[in-house]
Amino acid sequence: MNSRHEPIEHDQTASATSERREEADRLLNGIAWASIVIGAAELVLPRRTRNTVSVGIGGVWMRLRGLRSIAGGIALLVADDKERWLNRRSIANALDCVTLAWHHHDGDADDRKRNGVAIGAIGLLTAVDMTAARKMELASRRADAGASSAQPVNRG
């Protein structure tokens, strides 16, 4: 009779958790690079970016928003606590939506249309952020549950 202890349940849980974590990490990397690219546009081309979204803020403010986006993107790439940075990014996105909504009545119909599209795009980005945060949270919970519940299975 062979008495081996094999943590089979733990291996399966660990594999599934690892896959979910990798999926969340790929999504986070995409979010991070999108933040960096959008931030670079706001930083380097503030007037064009401002005109594209039809918002009446000055170039200095647009550049500061760009720096904020770049910093947030870099933080998502290198920070250990990515969920915290995702939450901060969601708050910043909400503030961006408020700013855009404030200026939604400015300009002609085309300006309002561009402004509305920008609000929708930021809303979509926020939904992606929240999805990524949820995936990370679930992967962390499963990893914690798998580590605490995995018991060696006696194969005899």
Report on the architecture of this protein.
The chain is mainly α. The chain has one domain (9-147). It contains 5 helices and 2 strands; from the N terminus they run βαααααβ. It has helices at residues 8-44, 46-53, 59-78, 82-102, 109-149; strands at 4-6, 153-155. Strands 1-2 form a two-stranded antiparallel ribbon. The longest helix is centred in the C-terminal third of the chain and has 41 residues, at 109-149. The radius of gyration is 22 Å and the shape is elongated. The mean pLDDT is 78.
Topology, please?
Layout: E1 4-6, H1 8-44, H2 46-53, H3 59-78, H4 82-102, H5 109-149, E2 153-155
Antiparallel strand pairs: 1-2
Helix pairs in contact: 1-2, 1-3, 1-5, 2-3, 3-4, 4-5
Summarize this structure as a short list of keywords or feature phrases.
two-stranded antiparallel sheet, elongated, mainly alpha, 5 helices
Structure summarized in a few sentences:
The chain has 156 residues and is mainly alpha-helical.
* Biggest sheet layout: 2 strands, antiparallel
**First CA to last CA: what distance?**
6 Å
Query: What average pLDDT do the residues reach?
Result: 78
> How many separate helices?
5
| Share in helix | over 70%
Large-scale geometry: elongated
* Strands, count: 2
What is Rg? 22 Å
Structural class: mainly alpha
Which stretches are poorly predicted, pLDDT < 50 over at least 5 residues? none
- Beta-strand residue percentage: under 5%
Which sequence of SSEs, written as H and E, runs from N to C?
EHHHHHE
Question: Spatial order of the strands in the main sheet?
Answer: 1-2
Structural domains: how many = 1
